[in-house]
Amino acid sequence: MAASELEILIDHLKGLVGSAGFREGGDIELKNYQDVMGARSVAPLLLLRPSDTQQVSAILKACFEANQPIAPQGGMTGLVSGAAPLEGEISLSFERMKKIIEVDRFTSTMTVEAGVELQKIQEEADSHEMLFPLDLGARGSCTIGGNLSTNAGGNRVIRYGMTRDLVIGIEAVLADGTIIDGLHKLRKNNTGYDLKQLFIGSEGTLGVITQAVLKLSPKPSSQVVALCGVNGFENVANLLVHAQTGLGSNLSAFEVIWNNTYRLIDEHVPHASVPMSDQYDFYVLIESMGSHAEKDADLFVDVLHGASEKQLVEEIIIADSDSKIKNIWTVRDAAAEVYPGVGTMHTYDVSLNVDDMGYFGEEVEKRLRAQWPEAILGLFGHIGDGNVHIIIHVGPETERYHLQIDEIIYRLIQELNGAVSAEHGIGLMKKQFLSYSKSESEIALMKALKQTMDPRGILNPGRVF
Ligand code: ZN
Questions:
Q1: Would you say residue 454 lies in a domain?
Q2: How many Å lie between the centroid of ligand 1 and the Cα of residue 154?
Q3: pLDDT tens, 399-449?
Q4: Mean pLDDT confidence for 66-82
Q5: Burial of 355 from C-beta contacts in 10 A (0-12 / 13-18 / 19+)
Q6: Same domain, yes or no, for 214 and 105?
Q7: φ, ψ of residue 284 in degrees (nearest 5)
Q8: What are the pLDDT digits (tens) for 291-337?
Q9: Do both 24 and 78 map to the same domain?
Q10: pTM of the entire structure?
Q11: Which of 18, 34, 352, 407 is the most exposed place for a label (fewest CB within 10 A)?
């Protein structure tokens, strides 16, 4: 685009949103373009902050006509470098679209604008004695629009599913400005293609989500948590089946910390105090949530007792008070906080069959050590849904070896028919490995959809593929 055309477009866009609706030059805050993955820090040509869907539509229509690339953003907490603008892009922020429009107790739904923070949605649901079950570390700053467009996962997927499973209706805007109004509360709606799913998890490349109708659940009134020391991954896998069978729908988390991570936490995260010795191969956090405090606690103890009789577990600590529960979760969350003590670490988010995970952990270590005998690594994750995170440090030059480490991890994932991304998405960081988990014909269909919905390629270009 010629400089004068760009000036005309920018003036037009400013006019569409009014003075509160944009920021430019030095007025754009770092938080609106700083990449949390440290990949880049490129200020956008303009930061647009529309106040409603009509403005989003007008913005996209104008950018479409001018072939101007646009990068939508939520709370900028993503871990695959998808939202921070690239050179020459205009950023589209939802920080002024933060309204909770309605909570409907009869359909158990909440209707919200895209810019509402996840934690605010959780609190609103809670104040109505209901639960919005999506939960992740960035809850205070991530927004529901970002959660939806990346199909975020988190700690309670085992019971409630990914973000994709927590949505009933969506309003989105296509690249050319067309508004797709799918905002309804119908849990059953088999009227052709489920169009909302095109916008969920497509990382802002097929359209921009402006509002959503979220599915709420009954608020559980009981919570019990245990930490189990387990030897051998086969026992972890059998413990999962045992817990699923015994606890049924009360099972709300099944998180596993490998011994290597447990030791890193003990050594490097002072505010997390590990409740048992570091002699076991695996540490499994099991959580139950239900609606009959006494019965649920009894059932939980019975199920764990059964696990111990079957010799699946070596040691069990049951947390029955809020502070003990918090302690155990703090240890689990500390897995993501060992970096300052260790040094630069690469983080991986992959998915594979539960029965391949024991082999995966051993093989990752073997292949890494073949190249870097002193490598420090840790595995942990949401094993109940087949999702493992890996943190890796291979020495002071860890940054330089990024691609080689990627290749080791993703090659192994490909061999095991896993997914190179479980809950973080593809963004820019994983796009060169997309073909390790998606076939040629799948990628061709993805590209055909992109071509149909965004023929000029203005929406988050270069992300995903
Ligand atoms: Zn996770």
A1: no
A2: 5
A3: 899 999 999 999 999 999 999 999 999 999 999 999 999 999 999 999 999
A4: 95
A5: exposed
A6: yes
A7: -110, 125
A8: 999 999 999 999 999 999 999 999 999 997 899 999 999 999 999 89
A9: yes
A10: 0.93
A11: 18
357-371 helix and 233-247 helix, angle to the nearest 10 degrees:
150
Ligand 1 centre to CA of 409 (Å) is: 17
* CATH number for 392: 3.30.70.2740
pLDDT at 154 over 90: no
Contact in structure between 201 and 460 (CB atoms under 8 Å): no
- Residue 346 CA to ligand 1 center (angstroms) comes to 14
CA of 39 to the centre of ligand 1 (A): 21
41 and 14 belong to one structural domain: yes
Rounded Cα distance between 258 and 312, Å, is 16
State how far the Cα of 178 lies from the Cα of 60, in Å rounded to an integer.
Answer: 9
Higher pLDDT, residue 69 or 343: 69
Give pLDDT tens digits for 369-392. 999 999 999 999 999 899 999 999
CA of 383 to the centre of ligand 1 (A): 10
Q: Please state the length of the chain.
A: 465
Q: How far is the CA of 302 from the centre of ligand 1 (A)?
A: 29
Name residue, tokens 């739904």: 109
User: Rounded to the nearest whole angstrom, what is the distance from the C-alpha of residue 404 to the centroid of ligand 1?
Assistant: 23
Which residues constitute the domain of residue 178? 100-218
Cα 382 to averaged position of ligand 1 atoms, centre (Å): 7
Q: Is the dihedral of CA 84, 90, 96, 102 positive or negative?
A: negative
**How many angstroms is it from 153 CA to the middle of ligand 1?**
7
Ligand 1 centre and the CA of 78: distance in Å?
12
**Does residue 462 form part of some domain?**
no
What separation in Å is there between the alpha carbon of 104 and the centre of ligand 1?
30
pLDDT reading at 38 higher than 80: no
CA of 336 to the centre of ligand 1 (A): 9
Q: Domains in the chain: how many in total?
A: 4
Quote the ligand 1 centre to 178 CA distance (angstroms): 34
CATH code of the domain covering residue 318: 3.30.70.2190
Q: Which tokens go with 197?
A: 């799913």
User: What pLDDT, in 10s, does the model give residues 113-139?
Assistant: 999 999 999 999 999 999 999 998 899
